[in-house]
Amino acid sequence: MSSEPAEPTTSPLRDWAHLLAGLALGLSVGLVVWRVQPLRDDADLERYREVRDWVREQYVRDTDDGQLLEQALHGLVESLDPYSRFYGASEVAQLRRETSGQYTGIGVVFAPPVSEARVLFTLPDSPARKAGVRVGDQLVRVAGRAVGEMAPGELRALLSKRDEGPVEVALLGRDQLERVARIGSEALVDPSVRHARIVDAKLGVGYLAILSFSQETDAEFDAAVEGLRAKGAKALVIDLRGNLGGVLRSAVRVANRFIPAGTIVSHEGRTETQRYNAEPSRATLAGLPVVVLIDGESASASEVLAAALQEHRAAALVGTTSFGKGMVQQVRTFGADEMVVKLITSYYYTPSHRNLERTVEGAWSVGVTPDVELTLSEAEQQALRAWRVSYSPPDELLGQIEEWERETGRKLAPQPPHDPHLELALELLRGRRPGPYRAASAP
Question: Span 193-438: which CATH code?
């Protein structure tokens, strides 16, 4: 009788033993890798912990781990270049105000001196306007506290608490009668487009200043231009002096109003190239005579707008050479919106593919060169800078402000100072070219 090898028999108990042994071995290897990996791949984090722990134990004063971490991250990001920046929890709110174009408040602008808390005007559709706050009202008490006894910044803080409901405000009117209003704070647009006005009624020249580019700027620009055209504007002066930049897409959209076709700007980084081309349907102001004012503080997105209009021959530029910031920054949020990093990720290039960045060796040019150049004195620059950042009174309140000014015998609304750049722009629009360059007068 022949016999064949018997098939191996299996034991469930032995199989479970093998499985458990394999799991144990896997966990052991995993624990070894977990303990070794930080030393191999994350040695920098280990070094941070060592230094932090030593500082925590030995520094002469108590330290806060959160502040130590923020300071370390500030150094990590901000040592890369002049523009990249880390924002801790206390700085994120200001960054969001700058990029969103909004802030929380009741919507009042105070007359000088601000310490007296006298209302120069209220913003349209603001909580203060809806509550009946009038030109010349003085805030005397807020939430039962005397305004005159408050520390600097305390009044603003009380009027900016969005989630705590309306606050009781005692107002002293120009008629010396006191009344009480309940006013709640809301998210309001902080205007980035200001001082829209007609500067030559005969020729029909409108003027507006763009202080920065927020997510609201292109809509503000459209509204301002519509208002100027309703007053007879047939040409435009756009003031970009002191504009440090902001949201790229807003600058591109404003440029597209005047450029019907072609490239507005491109940016190129380590991984991708992005090109922004004009959309013909958005070029609602194509052909409008335009002069753009720039100076050494015009940077980034404002240079994108100025260069695009210049290279497409959609505008003439007046002023001084712009700053020369040709870098694109991306913003990323970390830690449940508590930390933000703004990091350089690519370079801007103008429609002719010029890189304007001042830190790049061999760049074609640094900044945007105006078609007509004139350097202002330091006093002129300071006066214009202070005026540009002031707020424009709404048209519907100008009569009340003028009446109050007659009562007090002094000017309360911001007044535009002497502006040689604007004068040159008007000369161009009148057809009288002042020459390619003008030397600066002695300060």
Answer: 3.90.226.10
Per residue in 243-277, pLDDT tens?
Answer: 999 999 999 999 999 999 999 999 988 878 899 99
Give the predicted TM-score (pTM) of the model. Answer: 0.80
Q: Which sequence spans correspond to the domains of the chain?
A: 106-189, 193-438
Instruction: Please compute, for residue 246, the number of CA atoms within 13 A of its CA located in the half-sphere on the CB side.
Output: 27
Q: H-helix or E-strand containing 145? A: strand 145-146
The residues near 331 (Cβ < 8 Å, ≥ 6 apart) are 95, 99, 340, 341, 342
Q: Which residues contact 321 (CB under 8 A, 6 or more apart)?
A: 294, 296, 366, 367, 368, 369, 370, 373
367 within 8 A of 303, measured Cβ to Cβ: yes
Q: What is the DSSP letter of 124?
A: T
For 164, the 3-state DSSP assignment is helix
The topology (CATH level 3) of 106-189 is Pdz3 Domain (2.30.42)
Phi, psi of 411 (to 5 degrees): -75, 130
In the structure, what pLDDT confidence band is assigned to residue 25 with cuts at 50, 70 and 90? very low
Q: List, for residues 301-351, the tens digit of each pLDDT value.
A: 999 999 999 999 999 999 999 999 988 888 888 876 678 888 888 888 999
Beta pairing, strands 205-210 & 235-239: parallel
Alpha-carbon separation of residue 73 from 54, 86, 250, 294 (angstroms): 18, 7, 30, 35
Q: Three-class SS of residue 182?
A: strand
